[in-house]
Amino acid sequence: xxxxxxxSLGEVLREYVEALKLKNKLKEASMDRHWKELxxxxxxxxxxxxxxxxxxxxVHLSSSVLRSEMLMQQEKIIKYMNxxxxxxxxxxxxxx
Length: 96
Hints:
The protein is of the alpha+beta class and 96 residues long. It has helices at 9-19, 23-29, 31-44, 64-72, 74-85; strands at residues 47-53, 56-61, 92-95. It starts with 8 loop residues before the first helix and ends with a strand.
């Protein structure tokens, strides 16, 4: 006998993620990928770490010149990353 309440694998995974309250953690984990999409490989190779902490995007850069350039693009970065997250979560960017 077959069950009549079948679900797709995608639906089951979505319910699982919601039940464990992992949605925000998954979004935070995607920061590195979104950063690479935004900046491209040339800038990404100077980036050692990208993460989100208390609505602040923290980016570790190995080039002080690049750090200065990125400071001028801060608003654009915030807008792009918030679009990728699907919510207005990032309020500030810190370059280290």
